[in-house]
Amino acid sequence: EVQLVESGGGLVQPGGSPRLSCSASGVSISIYWMGWVRQAPGRGLEWVASIHHDASEKDYADSVKGRFTISRDNAKNLLYLQMNSLRAEDTAVYYCARLRGALHQYYIDFWGQGTLVTVSS
Amino acid sequence: SYELTQPPSVSVSPGQTASITCSGDKLGKIYSYWYQQKSGQSPVLVIYEDDKRPSGIPERFSGSNSGNTATLTISGTQAMDEADYYCQAWDTTTGGVFGGGTRLTVL
């Protein structure tokens, strides 16, 4: 059974720099694009970042570009999201996601359960 | 960056057909995808590559995409279909992009 389990969320002060992790089981992530999606309380989904299976390509939403960094360790079956200079508007549930696609267009076929990041003093 | 627009809400009576639209510039030239999210749960893919259903998704879910509009259609809507629905496309610059979401109410 495929499982994606996020960790690293919690209460963070404005300006903080937490790192989220996503541990995969039941599947090797090494052949998949992976990504992070977030959802602020009571709001819609926002695509945050995605990464090629060998990390040769990374994409970021404009709202996090320059502050967040997506990375992966295929040997450990882990996906990361380093978040810097956090603001109140970064408060959200962060989902780890496995991507599938064709013709260089990707979608999410499997989601984690999410980890809540709350930015507040 | 690319933008997708959905109506905030759609209402439907049980057994009737619900249609949820998603608009974007030349959306019909790229793939559209749809997700269902029930309260307190992670989203679930219901349509990919415009009109394909993943394994386990009921046949009453269908999709189409042409011109500037993609449409998710739920035929014979059931109470269990009440949820938020999000369309998604891929932007070559920033990656994935979601529509704002549509709350489907089954009255």
- Total strands of chain A: 11
The coarse silhouette of chain B is globular
Treating each run of at least 4 consecutive H or I residues as one helix, how many helices of chain A? 0
Strand content of chain B: over 45%
Count of alpha/pi helices of chain B: 0
Helix content of chain B: under 10%
Q: What's the alpha carbon Rg of chain B, rounded to whole Å? A: 13 Å
Oligomer: heterodimer
Question: Which shape of chain A, going by the Cα principal axes?
Answer: globular
| Protein structure class of chain A | mainly beta
According to DSSP, the number of beta strands of chain B is: 9
- Main sheet makeup of chain B: 6 strands, mixed
| Overall pLDDT score of chain A | 96
- Give helix and strand order of chain B, one letter per element, not per position: EEEEEEEEE
Which ranges of chain A are low-confidence, i.e. pLDDT below 50, for 5 or more consecutive residues? Answer: none
> How much strand content do the residues of chain A show?
over 45%
Distance between the termini of chain A: 39 Å
Largest interface, C-beta within 8 A: A-B, 27 and 28 residues
Class from helix and strand fractions of chain B: mainly beta
Q: How would you characterize the overall build of this protein?
A:
- The complex is a heterodimer of chains A (121) and B (107).
- Chain A has 121 residues and is mostly beta strands.
- In chain A, 0% of the residues lie in helices and 55% in strands.
- In chain A, the strands form two sheets. In chain A, strands 2, 4, 5, 6, 9, 10 and 11 form a seven-stranded mixed β-sheet that branches. Chain A has a four-stranded antiparallel β-sheet with strand order 1-3-8-7, with no helix packed on it.
- Chain B has 107 residues and is mainly beta.
- Helices cover 0% and strands 46% of the residues of chain B.
- Chain B contains no helices and nine strands.
- In chain B, strands 1, 3, 4, 7, 8 and 9 form a six-stranded mixed β-sheet that branches. In chain B, strands 2-6-5 form a three-stranded antiparallel β-sheet, with no helix packed on it.
- In chain B, a hairpin with a 3-residue loop joins strand 7 and strand 8.
- The model of chain B has no long low-confidence stretch (mean pLDDT 97).
- Chains A and B meet through strand 5, strand 9 and strand 10 of A and strand 3, strand 7 and strand 8 of B.
